[in-house]
Write the structure tokens for this entry.
Amino acid sequence: MQKFLTNLLHTPHLRQILTKSHPQKSFKNLPYALSLSFSSNQQPPPFRSSQSSSNSKSKWSRPTSNVPSDNTKSSHDPQASSGLKLTSAKPQMSPKEILEEQQTVSKPIIKASTETLSLDMIERYLSDTIANLIQYKNLKSPNEKKTIQQDLVKILESCYQPINTVLPKIKQTKKDRQSSRILHSFFNIFSYCFNLNLHSQNMYELIIRPLLAPGIVFQYSLATRMPLAFYYMTLYEEDHLNSNIYIDIFHCFTNERYHQPIFMKVSKPDFLLIIHSFCFAQVSDPQLKLLVCGELNKLLKAHACTPGEILKVFASFCQNPAFLIENPCVDELEAQLLNIDLASVEPKALTAVITNIKAIHTFSKVMFTKIINHLTQYPEVMNDKILAQIARDSDEINFPPHFNEFLNHYIKENYQLKKIPISILLGFINSFVKKKNLDLELFKHLETYILSNLDQCAWNFLDLHHIFWSCITLTYDDAPFFKYLEKQTQRVLLDPKLDAEKFGILFWEIVQASHLHSFDFFIEILKRINQNNFQIEKDLKNFTTILYSVALSIAEYMHEEPELYQKRYKRDIKEQLYALRPLINTAIPDFETFLKQDVETQVKIFQFVLSMKFEFPDLEKQIQVSSQVLKHFEEVEFTPRLKASNLYIDVEDILKKMGLEYEAEKRETVYFIDLFIKPDIALQVEGVKHYTLYQRAERNQDLLRDYHLKSFGYKVVKVPFFDFSKFAFTEVEKRKEYLQNLLFEKN
């Protein structure tokens, strides 16, 4: 039966009928696809044209991450790139059954020797593996896939080495039908593995790379599958643009013998995918740029590209500056785009363009303005992908004020209605705070919503950083996020995979909060620093921030839990800090290294060393540069603040009326005492920034300063803005009485 159908499909009459019904479809691989179906006991699958109608949605887009989502059909979907849809006639298997089936399929390959392993065996293996990958893809629950993902990758990897020994048997000099079937099956598997995150370094090195020989690629018409190969190269080649295999394939694309058939005769989805892959791979070769761009209008017309598809080509170009710089065809393309009514473009195409908004902003201000105005006019176009991209690009793009207002309003109206992911909301909070255009009413709404749905967010480093940094910038150090996200913070901060820079940032942010984290968590942080599995001393500025955060934490525990600190905390901290000495001395080996740092870094090092001197003097003496650092800030000149606050001026005025002698801005090492009153009173005038937003708790930087000044022998007295402001400007006597009690009766 199979032979009969194969011969039938090779008859010119039937091929002519099929070609008329599907004019841009190649049927060269029909016998191969049917043989796959019958060899795996499948029903003959229905064929469909890979060339969609002019209004259809082509299957291409740059993945938002290295691995596209399981739930979306990416550009590498084998069912999208093949004329046949491979569907299994078997009922859906359970995850365990899929593993068992793949193990059964793999056994003959693993047991066979190099001499006995034949192309026939490989062909059967590939057919059955495709069927199992389809079963895996069709699993409904992401958790089901996750439970067997690693095991399935191991089973697949067990066959790569044996298969590698058979690959030389594939004929490269003359096209062979069986070799063709095997090659196309391989690329179908590569597609599934890419989409389902089942790929690995071994797959690339042992299977994919050997199959990328130019003779194989162009002998078996695999040029349209090269975009997938380019993606693998970007993942697994250290310098993919300069790798020999890439250069060989790229040379064939720029060869006059090949480039015309590749760009003109392939289907429209494949043409778009090739353009996209070259741009994604950052190809900058001027010859290819000339071939593609020089005939771009001709190619777009030949493939009857819709306005949405023209937008996609422009979006691809935006990913590769080399295709945009000094390129006259881009001006022509832009002129076409300006005449396109964006309201008539299909949503997927519009999303593909808007997710490249940063590049469009760089290369086409007119197109950028048109897109921004379109989003404002048609808010229903907005989706999660667009929102996430706008949030990411907000740091580098100055969106017009009316668009920022629109975003505030859109999120306020739709965050619950459309269930906007929390990670996107966090990104917008962060970008709004940076630009100082956050609607505080919106922030309070989002705070309640996020705290009620904490389990709906993965809470990775970026999520935590966005919300913590935003709260600190708003002086909202007492935000409930710090308390309710403590478990998530511990998980991220103590993750061995977290790099040194992110570790330092997140540690500093949680130390700024008024919420006192558990002492056990702090000790685990110190242990993590001592492990030094990310060589933290190589970035001295970041390492200094970590040391400064340690000093802040010590001051906070001393202030909040003084009895526990003396009984237990001090001993445990001392043990960890003693273990930290070699790391400190490696990071700052000499005084010259210290002097090379900026002033802010020098001050942080000094504050840490000063804390060690007062709290752990034996430890301070074992830090190589400690004595020089301490002496440095006794001699170096410091400039006090230039502009005093209104509160400071009012307090100073009352002191004058009280007849008290004082010294303004008295310096003590790196600190300036606002108003020093003999013999030992350090009067600090505390404005709004010295306290948290709602609970009016003291900020940890001030606690550290007070600890150091007290250790120097001063009596620290504070004038909080919320107390002093109770008395009107005209109530001089009440203000004098308040300061008299504060300065002398309490002391």
User: Anything to note?
Assistant: The first helix runs from residue 2 to 9. The CA atoms of residues 110 and 159 lie 6 Å apart. Residues 646-745 form a domain with the Endonuclease; Chain A fold (CATH 3.40.960.10). The mean pLDDT is 79.
